[in-house]
Amino acid sequence: MEAGEDVKTVNVSIVDDAFLSVGAVFKVMLNSANLEQGLPIGPYNSPRLGNRTAVNIPVSASAANGEISFVSTQTIQVQEPNSGTTVLNVEVNRRGTNGHVTVYWTLTPSGANFEYITTSDISPSSGSVTMENGQSQATISLSVNADNTPEVDEEVTLTLTRAEPSASQKIQQGSNEVKVIIKENDNPGGMFQFSAAMNKIYYVEEAGQAIDISVVRTGGLLVRRMLQYDISPNGVAEFFGGRNIIIFEPGVMYNNFTILANTDQIPEIEETFTMTLQSYGSEPAVIGNRSMISITIAPNDDPYGIIAFNDSSLNKVIAESTASQSYQTELLLQRTRGLFRSVGVEWVLMPNTSDLHPNRGVVTFAEGQSSAVISLVSLQDQLPESSETFMVNLTEAMGGARLGSSTSASVSIIRNDEAIYFKEPSLKKSPEPGSLVFTVTRAGPINREVKVKYRTVDGTAQAGLNDYQPISSQQLVFAAGETEKHISVTILEDSQPETDETFQIQLYDPEGVVMQWCMGLQVLQLSLWPMIMPMEYLV
Known about the structure:
This protein is mostly beta strands. Helices cover about 0% and strands about 50% of the residues. A hairpin with a 3-residue loop joins strand 41 (about 520-530) and strand 42.
């Protein structure tokens, strides 16, 4: 510094090949202070350094050379347009804006499918951008093109390769690449649906009838796809293979499998199920229109029941009805297995008879009903008969039910209508006056009580003319164990000369027995004649 100067400016030259980065600092230091030669040294002119002996000079953005990189190096994902072109803009940044720069870049296929990527997918494959002095950003524009070709994810790498002039501009390594992924498009995994060769509706039996299922993939075959089929409702329980995962590896067009209705021994009516095809997993699969089929399982395991006689009703015994008491028996029918809807069964009595009623009929079971009865009533006929056995046969089940193994039951009418009759001949003579005693006998079993009424009936002998003592209506009661009863008739004396006269004693209205020889009436005819005195009878 010259005498009298208190400020001095010093210019420092920067060499041509120096690269100034934004934020760099030049440090200037004062090392020492000395007097120029020729000046006397003394207290008044002895120079020294003060406190501020160093200064930092930062390099500003405008003064710095350019360091060029992408604004962001994160991977860019883009969808291929349905048609035309989508423009993808990628921003380039320059730290240090001193001077003009041209930045060159390339776009190269990369990733697993690089060999299939062409400029028809994304373009151009190279280019450059420029930034003027003071300019810090530029844009690289890429065109993503629609091509209607099934494709998986396509990856390209955009790289900043060099900057000119290279002496003052450089590419920032580590920040000069960006990956661009064109997402899979035009359905590279294809479309899935049930084969057109399959029926839309299936009707199968529960046991043994399989359904062959075929799923077909059309369109793209490039990637792995997973599907799931499900049968509802409750298909897992009703079918072998009622739910499963189907895997289509790349290149696979068909997947075939079989399902089978499960045999569960449970009575069931007709059931309809829906088999549905759907996507499975993280990568969605495209499902076509033929994604559902209907499966109907026919009624199975006797859903409407098996009808047969209960074991307790295979052999029934009934007494013959009487005038005072009616006898009936009930045959129990059992409906096993399913109890769905109302069903019936026809029956017939064999051989046809007038001893039991009715002779045929139909028994109806309501839905849910498991038992019913056939009611038979014995009819009174007053004919002595040995035990008779009849068969009740189930002939036809209706409404979907079927007959079981016990389709016949026997009904036996015990020996009945044992005869009650006069022990004497049918014609008996008596003199006038007199008293006659007649014996009435019961036949057959004597283990029960029986009854019969009796009366006198005028003939040529008349009670009103005092020929005999009339009996209007009396009853004989045979207790259990008794076989004979007696009837007494008084013959009157009228002192009139007469020829033989007759009247009758009738047995009628029996209970527990029948009359012998005629229906409900046993007749004894009496002949009367006067006595001739001495030792002669008037006849």
